[in-house]
Amino acid sequence: MPSALKIRHIDFQFPDDMPWNWNPGNPAWGNAGLFFCLTAPGFERYFIKAIRQAMPQIKNPSIAEEADLFCKQEGQHSRHHQAHIAMLTKRYPDLKQVMTEIMQSYDELYEQESQDFHLAYAAVVEATFSPLTKFVVDNRHHLFKESDTRMASFLMWHLMEEYEHRSSALNIYNDVVGSYWYRLRMAPRVIKHLMSVIQLIEKRCNACVPAQDMGAPMNMNDQSFLKTIPLTSKLGMVWDLACTLLPFHNPDHAASSPWIKQWFADEAAGADMTTYYS
Questions:
Q1: Is the pLDDT at 2 greater than 50, yes or no?
Q2: At CB < 8 A and 24+ separation, what contacts does 231-234 make?
Q3: pTM for the complete prediction?
Q4: What is the pLDDT of residues 150-170, one digit of tens each?
Q5: Residue among 27, 22, 20 at smallest CA distance from 89
């Protein structure tokens, strides 16, 4: 695993032949990936704006450097997701309004809440990606059955970098705000806002994307993609997610897997990560 965050310039392409239903072998998981893709530009812009504003208050120089790299990685994520969404919007023009509403939701949140809340939001959300990444990697053959390799590789890249900067948002929060109890108290409000964004996506996308293109309707409560996952893996993920809210949780101690380590090694060696997921 790399010791510092790396800014990667991977040439992901989103040609017109990439379908909405990119994972016909597991369309419920395909929709879960689309929920993530459509939400990402909004919360990533929100995180970057909040952290850039907080940069002068970061006391530890190494955390300030980490914060800068974190923002640059998030900027790369947002740029690629916007390219993917732009391709989909050509096919489904009403998707543009969906994205406008998501951005407005985060802009309003930024205006209404304090800097401490913004940093807590980032810390709460970013902490979940470490257990989620390991869960996806460990069960990738169940989840990405018959998927479009380009889309699967794109999502895996994003998850790998989320795993790489798994401690960054919490480090920034602890340096600037430092209150565990405030972060814990804000967690339900963070989750409530994120769920409202996902509900918006579900409602709007089911209206603007033809049913025959979807594979399965967008449904945030559809957990059918979990039916082939071993129970121990599901319980392990739930436990690991709960642990992210414990007072002494350290994301750097999160469990890894050989595949995660291999992804970073192969990327560093120059492998084509645009078709790398299995």
A1: no
A2: 233/135, 233/138, 233/139
A3: 0.95
A4: 999 999 999 999 999 999 999
A5: 20
- Could you give the CA distance from residue 80 to residue 93 in angstroms, rounded to a whole number? 19
CA distances from 97 to 30, 38, 68, 94, 101 (A): 22, 12, 31, 6, 6
CA terminus-to-terminus distance, the chain: 19
Residue 187 is encoded by which pair of tokens?
């967690």
Residue 12 and residue 153: Cα distance in Å, rounded?
Answer: 9
CB atoms within 10 A of CB 178: 10
Q: Name the token pair of 271.
A: 């492998």
pLDDT digits (tens, 9 = 90+) for 167-182: 999 999 999 999 999 9
Distance CA 169, CA 124 (A): 8
Tell me the HSE value of 111 on the side-chain side, using a 13 A CA sphere. 6
Task: With a cut of 90, say whether residue 3 has pLDDT above it.
Answer: no
The burial of 135, by beta-carbon neighbours within 10 Å (0-12 exposed, 13-18 middle, 19 or more buried), is given as buried
Instruction: Give dist(CA 100, CA 89) in Å, integer.
Output: 12
Percent of the chain at pLDDT above 70? 99
Rg of the chain on CA atoms, in Å: 18
State how far the Cα of 240 lies from the Cα of 234, in Å rounded to an integer.
10
pLDDT band of residue 1 (cuts 50, 70, 90) is very low
Q: How many CB atoms lie within 10 A of CB 163?
A: 24
Phi and psi of 217, rounded to 5°? -60, 150
pLDDT tens per residue across span 102-115? 999 999 999 999 99
